[in-house]
Amino acid sequence: MRKTWHVRIPATTANLGAGFDSLGMALTIYNDFYFTADSQVDTITVTVSGKGEGTLSGDFSRNLIGRAMQYAATAKHTVLPSGGHLRAVNRIPLNRGLGSSSTAIVGGLLLGDAVTEGSLSTQELLDLATLMEGHPDNVAPAILGGLTVSIQENKRIFCQKLPFPEALQAVVVVPEAEVPTAAARKVLPKQVPHAAAVYNAGRVGFFLASLWAQQYDQLQYGMQDMLHVPYRLPLITGGKEALQAALAAGAKGATISGSGSTLIAIATANAPQIAAAMAAVFASYHIRTESHILHCDEEGARISTVV
Predict the structure, then answer these.
(1) Is 247 helix (H, G, I), strand (E, B) or coil?
(2) What keywords are annotated for this sequence in UniProt (predicted)?
(3) pTM of the complete model beyond 0.90
(4) Any binding-site annotation on 102?
């Protein structure tokens, strides 16, 4: 009987305002990947359904999940099965700042590890995923779940996982227009004023302290940013007004999710009204959106076998 492995990886939101490339949180929307080894064939086929169907590569060696599987096998000095089938069921929008690429990387690493008799530690997964992604802010919560604070030191990732209050919801509004990560990084300056660095250091600490103290009305101040949001927000038509509309509708804080184009608002109540207010701004620019009211996923990536 052929064996199938299944991984479920949560969406993630990075930065949460001031925590550029360090803060990340897992969210309750998921991509599911399945791999079935088949010794009767000598190729690995790929099918994609949902988000990215018809656009993501069906070539195993070019598909990001397949590349991550191979990356895991190479790191372990072993080889993948020569034949099988990879199936991706994608629900997370692509190139919208919700960690779709991180799900592919983390999911591929977990599958690649599992089919080669699973020996990678959580630390090794974090390190390998960051090497592929380039920064840990999305891959860390995708692996661990919860709210994560990550730093890099000599190519090693140090990460602390924090619980996110159950009282808080994440309202995400996803415009139809993409903002590729490469384009969002290109607009960032190579240097920033010292005052901007001081501003952000204070805000990210204040954000975490406000969560710990359950002072949710203070979150909007901790989510203010001077390192990336002022440069990326102009890439999102209607984005500035949508963030203002979220706060006016009762959000405790609002910012760009990752590098955009998704916007995220933190709410204790009125989540549907906040989503509607943000979507209405985009509609005034004739931009279609999809909205989700989510919670923090505390479990992170999980893998199982399917018979």
Answers:
(1) helix
(2) Amino-acid biosynthesis, ATP-binding, Cytoplasm, Kinase, Nucleotide-binding, Threonine biosynthesis, Transferase
(3) yes
(4) yes
Rounded to whole angstroms, the Cα distance separating 262 from 235 reads 11
Is residue 95 a known part of a binding site? yes
Cα-to-chain-centroid distance, residue 63: 18
Domain ranges of the chain: 4-163+296-306, 169-294
pLDDT digits (tens, 9 = 90+) for 178-208: 877 777 888 999 999 999 999 999 999 999 9
Does the annotation list 101 as a binding residue? yes
Please write the tens of the pLDDT for every residue from 227-241. Answer: 999 999 999 999 999
CATH number for the region 4-163+296-306 comes to 3.30.230.10
Q: What would the pLDDT profile of 91-117 be if each residue is shown by its tens digit?
A: 999 989 999 999 999 999 999 999 998
Query: Is residue 57 a known part of a binding site?
Result: no
253 annotated as ligand-binding: no
Is residue 150 part of an annotated ligand binding site? no
- Fold of the domain built from segment(s) 169-294: Alpha-Beta Plaits (3.30.70)
